[in-house]
Amino acid sequence: MTGTGVALADFFAEDGPGAAASERETLERVEELLARLEDGTVRAATRDADGTWHAHPWVKRGILAAFRHSETVEMDWPGGAVDRSLVPARRLGLGDGVRVVPGGTSVRRGAHLAPGVVVMPPSYVNVGASVGAGSMVDSHVLVGSCAQVGTGVHLSTAVQLGGVLEPVGARPVVVEDDVFVGAQCGLYEGVVVRSGAVLAPGVSLTSSTTIYDLVEQREVRGEVPAGAVVVPGSRPARGDYADVLGLSLYAPVIVKYRDASTDAATTLEDALR
Question: Please, are residues 232 and 203 in contact by the beta-carbon 8 Å criterion?
Answer without folding.
Answer: yes
